[in-house]
Here is the input.
Amino acid sequence: MTAVTTAAEALRPRFNFAEYEACSDIDPDRRLELLDGEIYDMAPENIRHSRLVQAAFLALLDAYGRKRVFNTGTVKIAESGAVEPDVFVLRPGAVSAEDGPWPAAAIGAVVEISVTTTAKDELKIGVYAAAGVDRYWRYDSSTRTLHDYAELDPERSEYLRHRTHEIAGAEELGEALSRLADLA
Here is the structure.
């Protein structure tokens, strides 16, 4: 890393969760995520993404039940982080407030579908590990690969196991997640 890069990074504005939440007051239709103090625009939904999210959601709904699986909602990772996972699974017995974002401590597993967001979703590997999320599944539609991150080491904030599975499309993604959920 050069001194110029370091200086540019130092000048980049950092945002906290309250400032991130205030963005929705300015433009409620804009979809954003907050990763390590930086606000990122979320890509618009498209048909392929919607089909893949639906397959993941239905497979995990069958595996974990309707009280634990969601496909919408903000997860507050830290004071400088908030994500909008495509699908997430609550830990057994997880408790949260009636309103506001889901706390990271309540989240046991996450699915991200990467159609146009591969680089940003790769950043989330460390974000989810640091937040204590036990399982992170990321489907990369450009390579048709399901990445399965498991065996969280909370002291090092990293996943000890990373396996990949070739997946042709939405139906196979649902089947693979059903099998993997049984192992979780």
Remarks:
- The chain has five helices and eleven strands.
- The two ends are 39 Å apart (CA to CA).
- The longest helix spans residues 47-64.
